[in-house]
Please model this.
Amino acid sequence: MTMTAPKTAVPPAPASGRGGRPGPQSTARRREALTGYLFTAPTVIGFLVFVLGPLIAALYLSLTKYNILTAPKFIGLDNYIRMFRDERLATTYGNTLVYVTAAVVLINGFALLFAVLINQRLPRALTYVFRSAYFFPYLVALVYVSIIWQALFQKDTGILNYYLTAMGGERIDWLNSSEFSKVSVIIVDTWRNVGFAMLIFVAALQEVPKDMMEAARMDGASEWQVFHRIILPMISQATFFNITITIIGAFQIYESIIVLTRGGPGDASRSVVMYIAEVAFNKFDMGYASAIAVTLFLIIMLVTMVQFRLRKSWVNNE
Amino acid sequence: MSNAVLPSRTVQGQDVRRRRRAGVGKSISVGLLVLGAIGMVAPFLWMFTTSLRDASHAYDLPPQWLPTEWDWGNYAGAVSGPVPILRNMFNSAVIAIAVSVGMIITAPMAGYAFAKLQFPGRNSIFVGLLSSLMVPAQVTIIPLFLLMRTFGLLDNPLSLILPGITGALGVFLLRQFFLGLPQEIIDAARMDGATAWQTYRLIALPLAKNAVSTLGVITFLGSWNAYFAPSIFLNSTDTATLPLALVLMLGPYGAGNVAQVMAATTIAIAPALIVFLVAQRWIIASLTQSAVKG
Model:
């Protein structure tokens, strides 16, 4: 080995470069590193100033009493202990969990249904029209679609109740009753987000080999078996992605409620983010609001990390 | 022989039955899809029709789905109403353009560095950046509010522009693109004596045109549609962005002039519609790719 080494050996330049001795290679390497730092500098500075710094500040503020006018006063974990006695927090977190559950089930359920239907052999123009129609609401601001929907939801003048009573039903107080205000928020949330989740499912469904499904059908598998045993396992990665996105999105639900119900009646439809904003910017209880926001951050971090883990182990990604 | 023929017959029989059932199934599924699509489009249609009606007929029932009159008065009324929505639209446009221009400069540079350049700490910096995707806006909003207040930037578009011009998602998308770029292209340029900047600017960046445009459009729409941060940083009608202005126009409990609100909403939705008509194919492609393959 050592005998043949000199014959095939490459010139020693790279070795010296790696060793850090001055030479053309190491200058190039140093210059490349410098370029790397310069190229990433704006993003890294933005990250430090507008994400990491504020995150650390929020963690600190959550341990203080701070009303903006006087300096923050360190109070240890008092804010976190206070949360357990806060009934409004329990209500708003409860509402938020309803929104999260509904989003996971309804958005992904409808999205998968429409994705499977759209993935059949249909005329290309038809597929295109369907995809466009389902996707469009996702591009429009949640505020704008909520403005349209709150008009449709009006008790006496809204067209939803018009059709409902025309079919012999009762008028529903969509926006101002404690039973239905959450339902209205869920309807708008599902309606707006189903298209995006559907596209993710469609992209995944197109990767499922057609001949594998054909072969299973030839062997006498029912459509349900094909779906359950072949399609579902093969699109599990998209499913996990969609579930994660819908959970994270629904935990942050905010502006649709502002437009539709203003959180009411009472706190019946108020989300935890609305409560954070109220505590922080109406009551100027910055420390307590930060503590609640930190719990939201921990939940979202947990969900993201679970998704990351599951994606690595459970999910069938060939 | 007979053994071989028999099963093939039953297979054929099954096939015919299956095909007939598939035909029925297909009409049902197209029916469902049509129903869903109507549900998706109907609210927008109602918005547009209502925006063209005289305010006194805005709530006429049964609802008219197609415009019966083409009265553009509500648009004039919306524009000249107490809420200066043209001004608000201008504010939104300034912020959205500044943010997207900033993003399409900073994100491709960083994405290229993380994909193609060697420097100590590269991977840990990238992972750190990516972790910011887990930080919800609600957690940083209070310290950001205090920061903007300290620097006198509240009620100033800069409070939304400065945090918006960099971001981990764009870096991630562009890094994915540059990772797919063959190293030989970069090496060849370097061999010919191009500097790192020239290699990036003249070789790599032009190849990323589609990814960069997608990022630009996504960033623009994200900013144009944003509500949460603007609602906290901006607090006067003159600095308000369009979403804030429309909520203001709607008034508490939807008490505003519905026909005018719908006219203003129609205007507000226009950019999304344009993006949708011009670019939906590649936006859909890049969004779904980054989700399914990333």
